[in-house]
Each structure stands twice: as C-alpha cells, then as structure tokens.
Amino acid sequence: MEENNLKSAIEALIFASEKPITTEQIKKVLGDLDAPTINRMITALKNEYEVQNRGVRLIEIAGGYQMATSSNFAPFLKKLFKNRYSEKLSRPALESLAIIAYKQPLTKAEIESLRNVNVDGVMKSLLDKNLIRICGRKKVPGRPFVFGTTREFLEHFGLKSLADLPKMEDFTDLAQQHEQAAEEIEPVDPNDLEAKDESAKIA
C-alpha cells in the first residue's frame, strides 16, 4: 500500500474508533507497518489539520489518538448541543475523584478522613462509571483496598496522562485571585439602593 493510502487508512481507523486508539492497535490492524512510521504519519495528519484550520483535530488522549473538534469552534458546538442531556458528576463525586487523582493510591478510609464524610455511595458510583479502580491492597492491618484512576478517567477529562492534571499551585493562585477580587468589592447599603430606586421612579 502506498504511503498516502496508509496515512488515509490510519486516519480512518482513528476516526472510526469509539475510544482513543493506540499505535499498537493500529500496527496490529495494518500488519507490517512499524510504530515509528505510524507515529510519523499521525504527526503529518495532525499538522495537516492545523495548517488547513480544519474543524477537527487529531489529539493524544490516555495513550491513544482520537478525533476531536477544534476548540476554536466551541461556541457553535455549545449552541448545537445546549439541550443535549449529559450525565454530570455530583459535587461530592468530583471532590472524591480529585482526591484520588492527586493522591492515588489511597484507601476509602483515607478519602473519608480528607473529606470528613462517608463516601460509600460516591465510591460505588465512581466504580460503576469506571472512573476509578481497585489497584491493590495497603500493607497495614486489615489490608484495605487502595484506589486509583482509570484510563476512562483520562478519556472523560481529555487528559493525555496524569501529568496533564492542573498543578496544585494553579488552584492556589486562583484562590488568591478570588480573595483579592473579593477584597476589592465594597459592600452596598440596601438603603442606598432603595433611595436610588425611588429617585429613578421620580425621574
């Protein structure tokens, strides 16, 4: 098969795959094609989409490759799908998931200690959604299970790897910015607002 046809075949495989497809999976489908050649063609495809300002991009997620829409056109996509149902994670689930993502592996008791609440229901929900997994037992009395995130977690949040998680310092900076903005807000006396409303009516 000619190089252009091979590149098109790789493009078709990535497009058709429901989940991010790995170089190894592409290699198994295409036979004798080696990994360096596959990676070179994927890089060429990525460059073509960007140079031509295509509506889709080829991105790397969770160790594989997937088609995704360009972030440039996000406002239009939001309008298109604004009424589409999307199952969202609850705040408790997100909080527990964040703790697991940043501190894994850790036990349920350690998660509960950090959150100060029972997390039985939340853990079951995250396990059912395959966002977390049991990845071993802790070498302490009772040998409790320890939990970590899954590849589906990376896919769900569009991460290439755990290294792409926002740094904790970023959250600290955001919190400081929020506090600074709050300090710059001057409280308003409700009586002043009522007086202004009356003035506006008279005018």
Topology:
Elements: H1 3-16, H2 23-30, H3 35-51, E1 56-61, E2 64-69, H4 74-80, H5 91-103, E3 106-107, H6 108-115, H7 120-128, E4 132-137, E5 145-149, H8 151-157, H9 168-183, H10 190-202
Give the CATH level 1 class of the largest domain: Mainly Alpha
Strand order of the largest sheet: 3-5-4
Instruction: Give the N-to-C terminal Cα separation.
Output: 81 Å
* Count, helices: 10
Sequence of secondary-structure elements: HHHEEHHEHHEEHHH
Rg over alpha carbons: 25 Å
What is the averaged pLDDT score?
Answer: 81
The third-level CATH topology of the largest domain is Arc Repressor Mutant, subunit A
Tell me the total number of β-strands.
5
- Helix/strand class: alpha+beta
What's the CATH superfamily of the largest domain, by name?
A: Winged helix-like DNA-binding domain superfamily/Winged helix DNA-binding domain
